[in-house]
Design a protein that fits this description.
Lipocalin, eight-stranded antiparallel beta barrel, single chain, 115 residues, 8 strands
């Protein structure tokens, strides 16, 4: 797979497991410098969040995230995202994640680049 750029791309959730807080109204704004990716996100029940990730040779992301929820709680977690390049060139990320705060549960989500 050729090297993907996540820089200045925006993503929106397509699906998430019930124990997740991200939904279709949550917007992620990704930035990238070499093999480091970071993003801010907000929307839905999330007031504001940040993430930082390392990109590997297959363009997969190993990330850590944190956000403040509308109920006033801070949430943290880890996520491993695998990219899929769509026919139109946009990126779809297949994610496996786990909370590192609260109940420590895990889940799966898909986010897709907004054209």
């Amino acid at each position: 797979m050729s090297k993907l750029s996540y820089h200045n791309k925006r993503f929106r959730s397509l699906s998430n497991t019930e124990n997740g807080e991200v939904d279709a109204t949550t917007i992620f704004h990704y930035r990238q410098e070499e093999m480091t990716v970071w993003a801010t996100y907000k929307g839905g029940s999330i007031i504001f969040g940040t993430l930082v990730a390392k990109v590997d040779e297959q363009n997969r992301l190993d990330m850590r995230y944190q956000h403040l929820s509308e109920d006033g709680t801070f949430k943290t977690g880890i996520c491993h995202s695998t990219p899929e390049v769509l026919a139109d060139g946009r990126i779809r990320l297949h994610e496996k994640w786990q909370w590192t705060s609260g109940d420590q549960s895990s889940g799966a989500s898909i986010i897709e680049e907004i054209p």
